[in-house]
Design brief:
Length: 266
Amino acid sequence: MKSSILIVLLMLAITSPGCKTEWHAASNPRVRVLTYNIHHAEGTDGRFDYDRLAKIIRSVNPDLVALQEVDQKTQRASGVDQAAELAKLTGLHATFGKTIDYSGGAYGNAILSRWPPLEIKNHPLPSTAGHEPRAALAIRARVDGRGEPLWFAATHLDHTRDESERLAQAVKLNELFANEPAEPIILAGDLNAVPESNVMRNLLSQWNDASAASPQPTIPSGNPRSRIDYILFRPADGWRIVETRVLEEPVASDHRPLLVLLERTR
């Protein structure tokens, strides 16, 4: 009898207007984002090891993963569809975006996502003769599968010394995504540009760098000295940066993965 009375009193206290409790407070959705140039799954030890890559990805429980240098059924990768294989090993949805035909298959970017894509776009980026074609793969998905939609884009910009090609690609990225105010968007990838470059100045005129407050180098993976991998977001007042870190992984690729935890603020 006493226990019944206590339960009733507790329920009244929780539901009374003056009672502040975290139990029923609606928390803002959080999104764990990882970007990783996987070097066609070949580690610095020369091994193609999908279990190793999947273990790294699973270790941080990401919602969205941008992958660069991904092979799809190439001779180099022994016919493996790398995005599909990593999706199977991580339990995530795979989307592949081809940039070039290569070695009997295809090569490009990929996205792994916890939520199934509502929409997929693979945008070609500007390239000139003698440069490897580049693209930006984007998916639209609902956070938790039912919340507000967002766009997530994965890209890999030109790697040559002259930054004019990268700069043209950065301008195109802004044209594609920065003028789309209706829904939040995250852009992640290997931009092959250091923070003080003209490329990054151009991008950061429209985007926010999730790692700006605690920048860490990402390449080479054995002893990182340069920061060329980024997770950018917009709008600025739509997200709060909860965590950002580079994973200490020196062997699975020539890049280290970058993780960011973002929280929606509105």
